[in-house]
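Q&A log
Question type: sequence-to-structure
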Amino acid sequence: MTDDSPRFVTVVSGLPRSGTSMMMQMLSAGGLAVLADQIREADSDNVKGYFELEPVKATKRDASWVEGAVGKAVKVVYLLLSDLPVKFEYRVLFLRRDLQEVVRSQQKMLLRRGEAGAGGESGQMVAMFQRQIEKTEQWLDRQANFQSLDVMYGNVIEDPQAEAQRVSDFLQIPLDTTAMAAVVDPLLYRQRTDAAS
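Response status: OK
Response body:
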């Protein structure tokens, strides 16, 4: 880590299918180092890659990877935020997306993969996600070592330059916001509430 690197971990979080991979790609394009491996490869659901780090899933048992994440960005699913060790500082970019869109996108992904859950009751899933997000919000509000910024997926699609600047300002890192905006592909916004079938 160089002297001018941030002294905190940038965490990209949110529900699955909410734009977290897109944000990781934006940060990388903007000049922030990202922690990711190629264990989960790009596919038709995430054609530009998932930008995941496998050790994150086992953070509760082994959080040794976090020290190497200082000054970098890493994707952490919202349910695992509370497993992050308290001795570090975190700035969380919390991706938000219409919950109906999230559920529809997840169901289509599971259906393509032939996995369980594709036919789940969408109303129940939306309610569950809403409860979990509210619980996560309440937890984040109580943590002195966490700062968070909500980033609306739809806003990133509509005005990527402005949202890239919001992210740069929040992190207080001089990111290349033009490069960040350039990686946003509106054609990948496939499960829109206003285009529901």
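Response note: Residues 190-197 have pLDDT under 50 and may be disordered.
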